[in-house]
Amino acid sequence: MATLDWAMVAALAGWILVATNLALRLVALGVIPGNRKPSTGAAWLLLILIVPILGFVIFLLFGRTELGRNRHERQLRAKARIRERTGRLADVKPPPGSPDLVSSVVSLNDRLGSLPLVADNGVQVIDDYDEVIRLMTEAVTAARSYIYVEFYIMAWDDLTGPLFSAMADASERGVDVKVLFDHIGSRGIPGYKQMLADLDDTSIQWHPMLPIMPLRGRFRRPDLRNHRKIVVVDGTVGFMGSLNLTERGYNKPRNHKLGRQWVECMVRVHGHVVAELESVFAMDWYTETDQILAVEARQAVHTTGPDVVDGVSCQLVPSGPGFVAENNLRLFTTLIYSATERISITSPYFVPDESLLYAVTTAAQRGIAVELFVSELSDQFMVGHAQASYYRALLEAGVRIHLYPAPYILHSKHFSIDDTVAVIGSSNMDMRSFALNYEVSLMMLGPEIVQRMRQVEDHYRAVSRELSLQEWLRRKPGLRYVDNVMRLTAALQ
Length: 493
What we know:
Strand order of the largest sheet: 4-3-2-5-6-8-1-9-18-16-15-10-12-13-19
Number of helices: 19
CATH superfamily of the largest domain: Endonuclease Chain A
Low-confidence stretches: none
Number of strands: 19
Helix content: 40-55%
Strand content: 15-25%
Largest sheet: 15 strands, mixed
CATH class of the largest domain: Alpha Beta
Structural class: alpha/beta
């Protein structure tokens, strides 16, 4: 019997490993750059060139944004149905005094997101966390026909309990209550299993979005998430913005110990834009359940009050992997290039791609007053350091960076352009929100609504401190190194 030559086996294994590494590198060179941004392709190539086998495994798990043929086809059918229904809304023009470019932005949004500009809406900007929950509970309590609720993170806790109870009571009296929440986003919050049990004890119809359930054959890239926040009641009132449906510390003891609380901004809307919010919910409901919801534009019902801005022209812009283009990114960059006087941006996670970075820094370099509001301390290690890697370029271009004081987390997501346009929604200004997350953004036109958003920005500025270039240049080399590494990982989309 021949003796096994372990030296030969080891040599052969070594040659196989070398050949595999070389083959993977060659394959990556021809496959990775296809239909990807240069920065994204370069980041994936660098990872695979450094650690070919591990890098390729990571790429197979996280390198593709496809959601499966069946889901994609459902999304296309839902989008076509939205186009058909919203096509019945009146075709309106931007209000008088709007810059010429706004008309082309409206056409861009309509073409990409299938939702038109609609006029004569009432908008209430709400930057009080508890007040948002109270107003949503009030609307749900008054519901007569249906309630549609969709959030990235959902938790049944002391703050949100009255809202959930109101939904349960409504379902018992015959109101059609439908609830969507992101599977991965919500299950990381303490009390998740109890929330599911409590929902099961009601007549509420609920479904997780983008569920990861390998044993049931439901698996996809795990970091593709539905990040939207939407509430629609009876087709007459809607809510959207940045707030997740949980208490201000996300029910996490560490946040409570640190005094960490989230700062949010939402809008309550009335008018035809509510039908657009309802259409986005209906698309997500159909995608998850294969059930079609009838969406009709109803007679606009307005609520007057000192905080309500009437007569606002609005356009809703959905975005995400189900759309061909990065709708939110194209909207953001186009508006930023259109600015002639002032740009104010609030984003908890500002990790721009090349196009957005150039738009913001170019605006500052051509004399536009550009300011960025971010948290002093980020709640996410990797994203916080990736964001920090852009501060020098922004400060050198003339962008003024305002740091919202710790331990608060400035989670609001909105920006304003001159005195004519404001945008608010669920989308961060980062590559994840542009390419991987389902988001929804609301463009609002007119000086009155911009002035209301300015009041929120003025408050942020009053409580924040401004970061100077001199201070930032003193940042320790070790921190700068971590910033740059995290910047590279942010490009692995």
